[in-house]
Specification:
By secondary structure, the protein is an alpha+beta fold. Helix content is 44%, strand content 22%. It has 2 domains: 52 residues, no CATH class; 125 residues, no CATH class. It has 6 helices and 8 strands.
C-alpha cells in the first residue's frame, strides 16, 4: 500500500459516514440543530475546562507564562490563576511567549482581566453545578470578551478584547528579529 494511502482511506470512510447523515439532517432540521448545539456545548465546556486548568492528570501540570516587568522576563505559574495577581509585591499578567524561526524567544502580547471580569469568572467557578460546568456561561463569555485586556510589551495603553480590530492587531505575531514565522512556547 503506498505511503499515506491508509490515511486517505480512513478520511474517505469518514466522509461517507457524514454523507449518510446529510439526508437525515436535510429532512429533519431539528435534529441537525440539536447536533450542532450539542457539539457547540461540548466545545465551550472543553475550552472552559482548559482555561480553568481542569481535566485530571493534566491539571497538575497546566501552566502558563506570566510577567511582572512588561514582558522583559517571564515565569511559568499555575494556569488557573487569573491575571493580574500579586507575585512578590508586583502585579503579574499573562505573557504569550513565542519562538521565532531564528530561535529567539519573545513575549508577543500581554493579557489581564478587569476587576469586574475577574469577579464574574471567579464567582462562576465557585457556583458550578454538580457536574462541574459553570451555571452562567453567558457571564463567563462576557467577562472573557469585554473584561479581558491586551497590549504589546512597551505599549502604555491596554485594549479591551471586545475591540476586535485592535485586539487582532495586538495578538498577531510580530517577531522582533524579523523572522517570518514563530511558534508558541509551552512552559
Amino acid at each position: 500500500m503506498p505511503e499515506g494511502a491508509h490515511g486517505s482511506t480512513r478520511v474517505a470512510k469518514m466522509m461517507q459516514a457524514v454523507m449518510k447523515l446529510r439526508p437525515t439532517f436535510t429532512e429533519k432540521p431539528a435534529r441537525a440543530l440539536a447536533a450542532a448545539g450539542g457539539l457547540l456545548l461540548i466545545g465551550v465546556v472543553a475550552i472552559l475546562l482548559q482555561m480553568r486548568g481542569g481535566g485530571g492528570a493534566s491539571a497538575a501540570r497546566a501552566r502558563q507564562f506570566f510577567t511582572v516587568d512588561d514582558g522583559k522576563t517571564w515565569f511559568a505559574d499555575d494556569a488557573s490563576k487569573l491575571p493580574p495577581f500579586d507575585k512578590e509585591g508586583k502585579q503579574a499578567v499573562r505573557a504569550y511567549v513565542y519562538r521565532s524561526g531564528k530561535g529567539k524567544e519573545f513575549v508577543n502580547h500581554l493579557e489581564r482581566f478587569t476587576p469586574d471580569a475577574r469577579q464574574a469568572i471567579e464567582s462562576a467557578n465557585l457556583n458550578q453545578t454538580a457536574k462541574g460546568s459553570p451555571k452562567n456561561l453567558a457571564a463567563i463569555q462576557g467577562a472573557y470578551t469585554a473584561g479581558r485586556e491586551l497590549k504589546r510589551p512597551g505599549d502604555a495603553k491596554w485594549v479591551t478584547a471586545a475591540n476586535f480590530r485592535d485586539a487582532a492587531r495586538i495578538t498577531s505575531i510580530n517577531s522582533p528579529d524579523g523572522a517570518a514565522d514563530a511558534d508558541p512556547v509551552d512552559p
